[in-house]
Amino acid sequence: MRRIKLVVSYDGTAYCGWQLQPNGVTIEEVLNQALSSLLKEDIQVIGASRTDSGVHAMGNVAVFDTESRIPGDKICFALNQRLPDDVRIQASEEVPLTFHPRKANCVKTYEYKILNRKIDMPLQRLYSYFCYFNLDLEKMQKAASYLIGEHDFKSFCTVRTQAEETVRTIYSLDITKVNDLITIRISGSGFLYNMVRIIAGTLVKIGMGVYPPEKMEEILEEKNRAAAGPTIPARGLTLVSLEYEKELAPYLEGENKHWHYVLDQRNVPEKGLAYLTIERCEPEELDGVLRRVIHQAYRNGAKRVFVRDTFGEEGSICGYYRLRRQPETEEGWLEAVYEGEHR
Predict the structure, then answer these.
(1) Total structural domains in the chain?
(2) What pLDDT is recorded for position 76?
(3) For residue 164, what pLDDT is reported?
(4) What residues are paired with 280 via a beta bridge?
(5) Phi and psi for 237 in degrees, rounded to 5?
(6) Which of 61, 46, 49 has the alpha carbon at shortest distance from 93?
(7) Is residue 237 domain-shared with residue 127, that is, in the same domain?
(8) Measured distance CA(108)–CA(241) in Å, rounded
(9) Does residue 300 belong to any structural domain of this protein?
(10) Residues at the annotated binding site?
(11) Do 172 and 83 share a structural domain?
(12) For the domain that residue 82 is a member of, what is the CATH number?
């Protein structure tokens, strides 16, 4: 058995999103059918990002398993001959069977385009959101700066989300304008359901002068979907790329006004050891920080995770883990021991 990775681009206009749906054609369905026909096997792809109806992609990622001996880098050429004109595989390659596109660490980048002029342009209608009102780019840029870093983005997530955790990290958020076209480009560790479209909708309100730029920080802190702007149409959104981590970062750091931590992963590759130091943390946020970061360390390959006992209490439960003082544990540290059931 082999696992093949695909980089998929598509015009999402005619599709009901990525994920299989009973009431319409989806990108996943089209890929499954084309691959099954090509390889004479029942193929089910696993996608990295389940884009919504009408959302486009330049570089979504999917994998599938096959017994075929066709070279991985040749599959894209054969597959493209069986796909409709609005779906194309940009690259294909064989990857380890352990690679999972939704579980591997990566940086996701999206762009949202806004056509900002007095009269709509028909040629842009499928790939941008038209806004008649003049948008103040400087105000939008200032507002965007409040979202950089690790935050709880509950205000920017649909109330129908199935996500248990709403903390995400935004690495960059740039807003530029060329002629009449405004581009919001955002890169992060991951995004909640409708998060980019809600952020874009809120930035539009700020650009129109409905809110001052400082309102963005208030919305973030409120952790209430009703506080943010509208979810603007899907047609302006494109998934640009997913850049997967080639080697484990030696440190992970998360910092905002509520918490600051450093996860030392330097010994994970060789010894399987990770060390979490909480520099500061508000009491009501501590459980969440411990739960998230301990889980991430184990997901990154750590076999044992230690927490400085200045911010951890022996016997505390952090999601699937309990903090314990082991006989061989260094002084000042507690080990996060896996205990199974989520609590």
Answers:
(1) 3
(2) 97
(3) 77
(4) 260
(5) -100, 135
(6) 61
(7) yes
(8) 6
(9) yes
(10) 110
(11) no
(12) 3.30.70.580
Same domain, 78 and 112: no
Strand pairing partners for 114? Answer: 129, 182
Q: Which domain holds residue 60?
A: 2-95
d(CA 110, CA 156): 15
101 inside domain: no
Three-state SS string across 277-334, please? EEEEECHHHHHHHHHHHHHHHHHCCCCEEEEECCCCCCCCEECCEEEECCCCCCCCEE
CB 211: neighbour CB atoms within 10 A?
A: 19
pLDDT at 162: 66
Report, in angstroms and rounded to the nearest whole number, the Rg of the chain calculated over CA atoms.
22
Annotated binding site for substrate: 110
Report yes or no on 168 lying in a domain. Answer: yes
Closest to 88 measured CA to CA, from 10, 174, 34, 177 = 10
**Biggest distance spanned by C-alpha atoms of the chain:** 72
279-329 confidence digits (pLDDT tens): 999 999 999 999 999 999 999 999 999 998 888 788 888 888 889 888 877
Whether residues 224 and 180 fall in one domain: yes
Same-domain pairing of 130 and 69? no
Query: Which of these three, 177, 210, 242, is where a domain ends?
Result: 242
- 278 shares a domain with 227: no
**Residue 100 within a domain:** no
42 is known as an active-site residue: no
Pairing, β 304-308 against β 273-281: parallel
Instruction: Give the pLDDT score at 317.
Output: 85
Contact between 62 and 101 under an 8 Å Cβ cutoff? The reply is yes
Point out the domain boundary residue: 204, 223, 242.
242
Q: How far is CA 235 from CA 230, 264, 297, in A?
A: 15, 41, 37
- Cβ atoms of 115 and 131 within 8 Å: the answer is yes
pTM of the predicted protein model: 0.93
**Shared domain check, 174 and 48:** no
* pLDDT < 50 regions, the chain: 342-343
Catalytic residue among 11, 52, 136, 287: 52
